[in-house]
Design a protein that fits this description.
The protein is α+β, with helices and mostly antiparallel strands. It has one helix and eight strands; from the N terminus they run H-E-E-E-E-E-E-E-E. Strands 4-1-6-7 form a four-stranded antiparallel β-sheet, with no helix packed on it. The chain is elongated.
Amino acid sequence: MGVPTATRLQRDCAGRARSAGSFVVVLGVLAAAFAVTAYVVPRSGRGPGGEEPTSAPVAPAAVRTVAHSVVYELLGAHGARNVTFAAAGSALTQHAEVATPWSTRFTRVGPAGRTEFYSLAARNPGPGALRCRIVVDGVVVVEKAEIEPGRLFSCAV
């Protein structure tokens, strides 16, 4: 009795290569069709001429502005240190030391009806009182005094 020997089946490798090649060709055709469609469809939607319609520019609504005259003052016998204030355009300005009486004036322009912020801070070198005052359009809006030497204080509205 003999033992049957196993035989290998011959596979058609060329058939596999042909099916993979067909797949690549189909995939390439689909990619090319997608690219052409993406390029042509948006352009054809505009119609002949190819120019997009233009709209009239929209002008911003006119905003009424107001100008406020602002004065910051420091009053005392021994000057002031570390003076910091919000000036025109809300920019912070600082001075290491100033002689008193000291004041600065500026005009702040902004939209009508908007609440404005004004701030002045300083350190009292002492002895004695150091007063700060903020005047807006000729009216004192805040006034404060510090009598303790070396203390930082502020006037703000």
